[in-house]
# Entry
Amino acid sequence: MSEVIVKEIFITEPEYGGVYDLREEVLRKPLGLSLENEDLSADETDTILAAMQDGNVIGCVMLQPKDNETIKLRQMAVTPAMQGKNIGRLLVQHAEEMARHRNYTRIILHARDIAEGFYKKLGYTTLPGEKFTEVGIPHVVMEKTLKP
Ligand SMILES: CC(C)(COP(=O)(O)OP(=O)(O)OC[C@H]1O[C@@H](n2cnc3c(N)ncnc32)[C@H](O)[C@@H]1OP(=O)(O)O)[C@@H](O)C(=O)NCCC(=O)NCCS
# Structure
């Protein structure tokens, strides 16, 4: 497998197109939805991390500050051909490192219930409470306290 790197990208960069396309293919099209119908203004201020291989975006995740302590992890996706090869783990590790570096102490996220096991493997805990619907499918809230 050729080298996979994770880097921060900005909406002004060509890689943002790759991140957009990946989110559309992995997170929206299978649900019959499109990012075209969403307000993407948060993309301008969120931190966007892309996993890159041979110049292609193969994974992404975004971080959105909630308050001084807490940052939200969102839009986690790995291209289908590369799923199960630790790219998701690598992206979450980088996101946690960046959050820690910026003095956040807690990450929260809304996990699709089919992805709950993935986040559990990475040390996230499901908060008590009902499952709720987002993008038409069941989700749970999960969190992880970041060790300094
Ligand atoms: C969920 C997703 C981001 C995981 O990324 P990935 O690169 O495939 O996962 P990794 O290879 O890094 O897996 C890390 C560990 O989690 C496990 N894992 C991965 N996906 C899992 C899932 N859906 N349920 C349970 N465990 C899972 C792996 O088996 C691995 O465990 P191991 O350490 O025992 O080998 C990716 O499969 C994906 O994009 N899925 C479709 C979109 C999606 O559901 N996004 C999440 C929205 S909340």
